[in-house]
Design a protein that fits this description.
- The strands form five sheets. Strands 13-12-14-15-23-22-21-18-19 form a nine-stranded mixed β-sheet, with helices on both faces. A seven-stranded parallel β-sheet has the order 5-2-6-1-7-10-11, sandwiched between helices. Strands 16-17-20 form a three-stranded mixed β-sheet, covered by helices on one side.
- It is α/β, with parallel strands linked by helices and 539 residues long.
- α12 crosses α18.
- The relative contact order is 0.11.
- Helices cover 36% and strands 24% of the residues.
- Bound molecules: glutamine.
- The site of glutamine has 10 residues, from β19.
Length: 539
């Protein structure tokens, strides 16, 4: 029998209570005690993955090394644990059904009626156990997306019930709820929590631990009341108070002894106290910065900051590495034009142009890049941001007429960014971009080589369009060089561009933000923030 232990994290009362952060924080504490832990997320929507979802719907789409387009919570898992995730760490209802339906067509269930129970629940359990069966982990934390009581979540809750029954003693359920605060009476209310636990009980699951999200401290009396009504030990009622930063949460959970309660429940050894020294040093620097810079983040989804989650977290990591508070100024690309650019950008110490798809807001990005290029303001362009830098240079320096990306203008006279050869015949949308990790060789003596201090790197990608090599010579002669190249069987792909005569002007076709963690802040962001600090010291 498997000795891997399984922890399920469910949510009640409302969505957005921070199940991802609680899961990542618990995993961090268990890892800091010496356990090998993985976290996965089960999402109850019918899309196969979030790759086809608008960021307004679901925030950022996070890409793993193996090219899976996943939920943004996986970004938190990687940033907290400093270990890579993969497709196995994120499963959706769409994927579950797709697998079952494909098997049905192959005849795997010949003669049988295919049903939610047992076929869908079996497939859910198979996905839950996949990571455990790799032999790489001792504990698997499975976060169930959505809120208990939702129709969509039912098969997952049922699969969890079955697994607890089948693996008696090796599972534990943490239920995250909200204790709303009634300002008029000055009270935290427990009723929604009681009802949400009752709903779980109706489905046959008794939670072992309740993590109670609250704006105010949860006193012993309240904990006793919740424990009594919900059949849990009083020490298993955990306060999860609103925190100034998500990076506080592991230490808050340690104070509440969430890790100890979990280990006791799973009958696992405490090993040693969590070694959180590095984490505490990170937090210390985060809260006591010596410097401050203002960095503009230009994108078209900025009404929803979750759309740029990994970028803003990477800037936090890089700020800490430089002992500098990075104040992000969120700038809507559609609101930028030649007349207001100077006003909006002149006081910034650096500008980052974000990834994206489609035409909306593109000209504002290009105008912004012209301004930072001419004014020596440090610039980092990511994916579409890099492509915009190429378009800007081709129009304003190379004076190429009607220069554009064929994504924006399929008939552009000068398609300086063009569809990749490997993408030309692809018509289906889901999971068909150039996705995941690819190697990249850095040109000696360039800024890129200096930033990474390496000659070969590997970064994650998510795009269909690429620098058009037909123009490379012209660009290089005028001072924009390709300093990172992927040598692919279909020809070289330009992965990094930079300007020779600029303090820091770097565009990357890949997404460095997917690889920055608390333990390993990404060098591109670290050097970008450093360049912003240098800019501040000269203006
Ligand atoms: N839309 C561009 C492409 O497909 C850039 C994608 C991105 O920024 N992730 O190439």
């Amino acid at each position: 029998m498997s000795s891997v232990k399984y922890i399920f994290v469910t949510g009640g009362v409302t969505s957005s209570l921070g199940k991802g952060i609680i899961s990542a924080s618990l995993a961090k504490l268990l890892q800091a005690r010496g356990y090998k832990v993985a976290i996965q997320k089960l999402d109850p929507y019918i899309n196969i993955d979030p790759g086809t979802l608008n960021p307004y719907e679901h925030g950022e789409c996070y890409v793993t090394n193996d090219g899976a387009e996943t939920d943004l919570d996986l970004g938190h898992y990687e940033r907290f644990l400093n270990t890579a995730t993969s497709q196995a760490n994120n499963v959706t209802t769409g994927r579950i059904y797709q697998t079952v339906i494909n098997k049905e067509r192959e005849g795997a269930y010949l003669g049988k009626t295919v049903q939610v129970i047992p076929h869908i629940t079996d497939e859910i359990k198979r996905c839950i156990k996949l990571l455990g069966e790799t032999g790489d982990y001792e504990i698997i934390i499975t976060e169930i997306g959505g809120t208990v009581g939702d129709i969509e979540s039912l098969p997952y809750i049922e699969a969890v019930r079955q697994q607890i029954w089948e693996m008696a003693g090796n599972c534990c359920v943490i239920h995250l709820t909200l204790l709303p605060y009634l300002a008029t009476t000055g009270e935290l209310k427990t009723k929604p929590t009681q009802h949400s636990v009752k709903t779980l009980l109706e489905y046959g699951i008794q939670p072992d631990i309740l993590v109670c999200r609250s704006e105010h401290p949860v006193n012993q009396e309240l904990k006793r009341k919740i424990a009594l009504f919900c059949n849990v030990n009083i020490n298993a009622v955990i306060e999860s108070i609103d925190a100034p930063t998500i990076y506080d949460v592991p230490l808050l959970m340690m104070k509440e002894q969430l890790d100890k309660v979990v280990l006791n429940k799973l009958r696992l050894n405490m090993r040693h106290e969590p070694d959180m020294e590095q984490w505490k040093a990170f937090l210390g620097k985060l809260k006591n910065p010596v410097n401050e810079v203002k960095i503009g983040l230009i994108g078209k989804y900025i009404e929803l900051k979750d759309a740029y989650k990994s970028i803003s977290e990477s800037l936090i990591h890089a700020g800490v590495a430089n002992e500098c508070n990075v104040k992000v100024e969120w700038i809507h690309s559609e609101k930028l034009d030649k007349d207001n650019i100077k006003d909006k950008l002149k006081n910034l110490h650096a500008v980052l142009v974000a990834p994206g798809f489609g035409n909306r807001g593109i000209e504002g990005k290009i105008d912004a890049i012209e301004f930072v290029r001419k004014n020596n303001i440090p610039f980092l362009g990511i994916c579409l941001g890099m492509q915009c830098a190429v378009i800007e240079f081709s129009r304003n320096v190379l004076k190429l007429e009607n220069a554009n990306s064929t994504e924006m203008d399929p008939d552009a006279k000068n398609p300086v960014i063009d569809i990749m050869a490997s993408q030309k015949d692809i018509t289906r949308k889901g999971g068909t971009m150039r996705l995941g990790e690819y190697p990249c060789v850095l040109l000696k003596g360039t800024k890129a080589a200096g930033i990474y201090n390496k000659s070969k790197i590997a970064e994650r990608h998510r795009h269909r369009f690429e620098f058009n090599n037909k123009y490379l010579k012209k660009f290089e002669e005028a001072g924009m060089i390709a300093s990172g190249i992927n040598q692919s069987p279909l020809g070289d792909l330009v992965e990094i561009i930079e300007l020779k005569n600029h303090p820091f002007f770097v565009g990357v076709q890949f997404h460095p933000e997917y690889k920055s963690t608390v333990e390993n802040p990404h060098p591109l962001f670290v050097k970008f923030v450093k360049a912003a600090m240098e800019r501040k010291s000269v203006v």
